[in-house]
Design brief:
Layout lengths: L8 H6 L2 H14 L4 H5 L3 H22 L7 H14 L14 H8 L1 H9 L3 H22 L10 H26 L10 H18 L1 H7 L6 H4 L17 H19 L2 H8 L5 H21 L8
Helix pairs in contact: 2-4, 2-7, 4-6, 4-7, 4-8, 4-9, 5-8, 8-9, 9-10, 10-13, 10-14, 10-15
Length: about 300
């Protein structure tokens, strides 16, 4: 198991212990895959990445809630201003948005803000910049009807860029300003973006049915309409004939192949890292994504 560095002296002296304890606890609740790799990071980077993750998770919760806002305009306003409200006002909260632990994250956000405010200015600048750009990107998709997925590969890639590629860029910049990686890593925008897209596309492929049922799907129509004889994305769910089953598998395989085309850039990115803990942080989720795609390829269970 990976060892947590959260109890290191440097961290304990810099941040309010009860607020930091909340951030650690909520991280473990809202993140299945990232908690362990974040907590093993070196003390000079750990809290920066932890807060970056929680801020974006809070923003994502606002984007995901389809019933909280009285109108799309209100939701767009909340997404566009998130970096100016949540990251500026130490008392800012949002009550009743999201579910479970994500709702609690928003309702007790001042504890995250307290830790954020104690981060180095360079890290805060990166977190605020990415939050603002991600909120703007999410706002672009609020009014789009995603019941039948994205329109084409271009829109699919654009959505993945906003919700995950920007995370890759932000992480590269945090790695660089921490001094653990070379400053040039902050300029590797393309490779950083591809790292995020690879993870996001894997999740989108895996979550086909859940997203379709929620009425907010991301499989590109330019791909799946080649395989759906009814012209509906739900065609692949619970197939009753061999023809439908095979069509679904062929569509799935095309999307898995599209995601795997990002793998060489991900390996190129990993080859640029020099800090062992940062390498682990980046490599473990990538390996898990490759294993997920391996499991999904030609697997009808994706549709059930």
């Amino acid at each position: 198991p990976l060892k947590s560095n959260l109890k290191s002296d440097n961290i304990q002296k810099t941040f309010d212990s009860s607020d930091l304890a909340f951030c650690d606890e909520i991280l473990c609740k809202v993140s299945r895959s990232f908690a362990a790799v974040i907590r093993q990071l070196p003390p000079t980077l750990l809290v920066d990445v932890l807060i970056f993750y929680l801020v974006l998770r809070a923003l994502d919760t606002v984007e995901d809630d389809m019933t909280y806002f009285p109108s799309n305009d209100e939701k767009v306003k909340a997404l566009l201003s998130f970096h100016k409200t949540a990251l500026v006002d130490p008392k800012w909260t949002m009550v009743g948005c999201g579910e479970g632990d994500e709702r609690r994250l928003l309702e007790e956000f001042p504890k995250c803000h307290s830790v954020y405010a104690a981060l180095p200015e360079a890290s805060r600048r990166v977190i605020c910049d990415i939050t603002q750009r991600m909120g703007t990107g999410m706002a672009e998709f609020v009014d789009k009807d995603l019941g039948q997925g994205t329109v084409d590969i271009t829109q699919y890639n654009r959505y993945c860029h906003f919700v995950a590629g920007l995370v890759g860029e932000g992480l590269s910049r945090l790695f660089a300003v921490s001094g653990l990686e070379q400053s040039s890593l902050a300029t590797e925008l393309h490779l950083s973006d591809q790292m995020g897209l690879f993870l996001q596309k894997t999740n989108i492929i895996r979550d086909y049915l859940e997203d379709y049922v929620d009425g907010r799907a991301f499989w590109p129509q330019s791909v799946w309409k080649k395989y759906s004889s009814t012209g509906d994305l739900g065609y692949f769910a619970n197939p009753t004939t061999d023809e439908t089953r095979l069509a679904g598998l062929n569509c799935l395989n095309e999307l898995v192949t599209d995601a795997l085309e990002l793998a060489p850039d991900c390996l190129a990115y990993l080859s640029k890292l020099r800090c062992a803990e940062v390498f682990r942080f980046c490599a473990i989720p990538q390996v898990m994504a490759i294993a997920t795609l391996d499991k999904c390829y030609h697997n009808g269970d994706v549709f059930t």
